[in-house]
Amino acid sequence: MTTAATLTTTVGGQGGAVIPPYYADFMRENLYASLYHRQLGTLVTIPRGTGTRAKIPRWGTAMKTGGGGTSFVYAVSAGGMSAISARAEGTTVTPTSLSAQFITGDVVQFAGAKSYSDKSVLVVRGNIIEGCLETEVREMAFRLDRYTLQNISASATTRRAGGKAAGAVAGTDVLNGKNTARIAPYMDANNVPRWEDETFVAVTHPLNQFDVFADPSANGFVSVARYGERQKIYKGEVGQMYGIRFLFSNANLRVFGAATNTATQGLSAGVTGSPTWVYAPDAFYSLELEDGGVEVIHHPPGSGGSTGDPTNVIGSVATKVWYGVAAAPSGDQRLMRFMHASSLR
Prior knowledge:
Layout lengths: L9 E2 L6 E2 L2 H10 L10 E5 L6 E5 L5 E4 L4 E4 L27 E16 H6 L4 H25 L4 E4 L16 H4 L2 H7 L10 E5 L4 H5 L2 H4 L2 E2 L13 E5 L2 E5 L6 E2 L15 E8 L4 E6 L4 E6 L5 H4 L5 E14 L7 E7 L4
Parallel strand pairs: 3-15, 8-18, 9-12
Antiparallel strand pairs: 1-2, 4-7, 5-6, 7-17, 9-14, 10-11, 11-12, 13-14, 14-18, 15-17, 16-17
């Protein structure tokens, strides 16, 4: 039988630096490795003692076509490209001002706890704290990924499988090869950059694996085991098809087309489907404190005092995570919500 000593957050002297104990490191290392959407954001750390808000300079925006496709303007202000043009030798160039806009976001606290009884300590041959933390990691990762989606959804551009209009995505408009082949052109048309390996990254619901995997030879699907070049493999990645690398996560939502098509984002009535999120670089920023912002607090049985727990029955393991999300503006076109049906319900 293994039990652990009482764990508390140690606060230093001058400056009050928080020193995470061993189990905070254990929690952080397992938590951040389990987040599917966070890994696709640009990490911004906030030093301890400087507040909870990050202010990120916005150096530029995606280009959008205008004037019948013959001219280019910045999404923020017309004429943003005026400094770049064919000029005679020796003439001066009028610089274009950088955007005065900033991307801002705050870290907020997420907390959870598991309680256990003295019976667990007596009969379980294992570390109670690590067992509690393992379940907390799964639950916290799910909550943080959902929080990420909630905070970036407004910045996404919605496109639909089969090129359908709102409310017209049918049950056959699934995430197959033909519809997947539309995604990269949609992103490229907005002049957003690809990742270093010249792909975009998509995260979708696990039930959509059936449609992605169906007839892989015809769809051009390449599994991660067949990647020809050494490259980063994302958490949850299964392979790529037509310039899209696929990840699957339960944090993604499932939607059902209502008769009124309210809040279904494009599905026909009676159709079950999903939004697949397609990321370009810098689509959002994941905000964390410089040490990861994870704390673990262990209260052994009886910590409530003689009044609350006179026979030392109940103990608890609590976790606190400071995490935040700042989305790039929708005008940058860095994120796409691709609505489609699903064959599996």
